[in-house]
Amino acid sequence: MGLPLQVMTLDEFLAWENAQPDKHEFYRGEVFAMTGGRRSHGRVLLSLGRRLMEQVDGSGCQVFVDSMKVQVANDTILYPDVFVTCDAADLATDMIFRAPKLVIEVLSPSTQAYDRSQKFALYRRLDSLQEYVLVDPETRRIESFRRHPEGFWVLHDMSQDEAMLLPCIDGRVSLALVFEGLDPPA
């Protein structure tokens, strides 16, 4: 997250954001511009979206990629890279989602620290969230934080595994398919 562009209320932000050509996140009255992604980021997003749609087909859940707003609280609007929701209100909304059960962030050098720390802390405010996954196209690392029934989060490093397991949606995606179309890591 960079320097804030301006300060406004949530309603002011939503009215303003809907008229903008670019995406912006909102946190405690401050507006932050989103940066564009690299080719590897886009490839992983599309691959994850496609594979997850196959996983949830017929389950009553839906997958959304890249340009949908998630309201974490009255003071926070974020744009997850990929998320899955099964919530009836979410499945009926056109613009703002409030109950994802799975959020995936595809890391980039400029957002990695934010996605691992502050953004994860913000997402943990969602009672619906069961799993937060970080995918790094550069290093081929996949780390999942899963909510334990007692409320704490447990790290599952799947970087050396054959597949990315997503138990919150009974999902499994081969790592080869997650990173399909990317150059081999350096």
What is the compact description of this entry?
It is built from six helices and 13 strands.
Overall description:
The chain has helices at 10-17, 39-56, 88-92, 112-116, 118-123, 175-178; strands spanning 24-27, 30-33, 62-65, 69-73, 76-78, 82-85, 96-97, 100-106, 131-136, 141-147, 153-157, 163-166, 171-174. It has 186 residues and is of the alpha+beta class. Helices cover 25% and strands 32% of the residues. The protein has one domain (41-178): Alpha-Beta Complex (tt1808, chain A), CATH 3.90.1570.10. The model has no long low-confidence stretch (mean pLDDT 90). The radius of gyration is 16 Å and the shape is globular. A six-stranded mixed β-sheet has the order 3-6-8-9-10-11, covered by helices on one side. It has a five-stranded mixed β-sheet with strand order 2-1-5-4-7. Strands 12-13 form a two-stranded antiparallel ribbon.
